[in-house]
Design a protein that fits this description.
CATH class: Alpha Beta
Number of domains: 1
Number of strands: 7
Radius of gyration: 19 Å
Helix content: 25-40%
Order of helices and strands: EHEHEHEHEHHHEEH
Strand content: 5-15%
Shape: globular
Largest sheet: 5 strands, parallel
CATH architecture: 3-Layer(aba) Sandwich
Structural class: alpha/beta
């Protein structure tokens, strides 16, 4: 899998890179609290790490162009914790759509959004639908953990939380210097086992502070770099398979059926 980063090109060398590219990759994430142990940039760092690891050893090579990361996302529910940044969902959706439309204007009309923050998902889906309906670009929103549920269960006997063993493992593998390992126990002791708060089935935990004092959820002390490398490697393989599928689709077949 050949990969080029758009921001490293000049306008003249970008012309060739874009002409060769079949799929653009757009990392997105957030700058938000991940408890006392993990960096604020955990989500976009995980997305970038997945992009860096993606490969397709057994399939055809498809050139990709990596777009600059969109670091700030839909994170108002973390606003009570210091350092968290956020944007409005509509603003985020429009911004991502503008980026995809820009690269489409240069001839790359297939985009995978490699997302690291679940709070972005609804906005990304809206942006993708709008671009497809208008036949500007086909955008596939994809979370780096989307296909890892079984592996996470096998390795950690859990599911994805927040600043938990999964994200701790990813950061220990991708950005170990940014992890304050001495604070992992504090994060775990002052956080719940699972995300959210409900009463009789009604979700009443609108903000993270409503159910976690530390900002973390789950058991971050179980995270290891070894597990993180396994998760990110598998995510990279999954991304490669998605890119290969998308590259092989005829553009006309990606538009809405019966579209006028």
């Amino acid at each position: 899998m050949r990969r080029t980063h758009l921001h490293e090109h000049t306008t003249t060398t970008a012309a060739d890179a874009l002409a060769d590219a079949e799929v653009a990759l757009l990392p997105t994430g957030s700058v938000e609290q991940h408890g006392p142990a993990l960096p604020l940039g955990t989500d976009f760092l995980a997305a970038e790490a997945t992009v860096e690891r993606f490969a397709n050893e057994n399939g055809e090579d498809h050139d990709t162009v990596v777009l600059p990361t969109v670091p700030v996302g839909v994170s108002a529910h973390h606003r009570q914790f210091d350092g968290s940044l956020w944007t409005d969902p509509d603003t985020f959706a429009d911004y991502v759509a503008d980026i995809a439309a820009s690269v489409a204007s240069h001839g790359v009309r297939k985009v995978v959004v490699v997302n690291g923050h679940g709070g972005n998902s609804d906005a990304l889906r809206r942006a993708a639908r709008k671009l497809r309906d208008e036949q500007i670009a086909f955008v596939a929103p994809w979370n780096w953990w989307d296909n890892l549920g079984t592996l996470i269960e096998e390795l950690l006997d859990t599911s994805l939380g927040h600043a938990d063993a999964v994200e701790t493992s990813a950061m220990l593998a991708a950005a170990p210097a940014l992890v304050r390992e001495a604070a992992l126990e504090e994060a775990e002791q002052n956080g719940p086992d699972s995300w959210g708060k409900s009463v009789q089935g009604a979700s009443v935990g609108f903000d993270a502070i409503d159910f976690t004092d530390s900002g973390a959820v789950g058991e971050p002390t179980n995270g290891t770099a070894e597990i993180g490398n396994e998760l990110l490697d598998r995510a990279g393989e999954d991304l490669a398979a998605l890119v290969e599928w998308l590259a092989e689709q005829e553009q006309a077949d990606l538009w809405p059926r019966g579209h006028k």
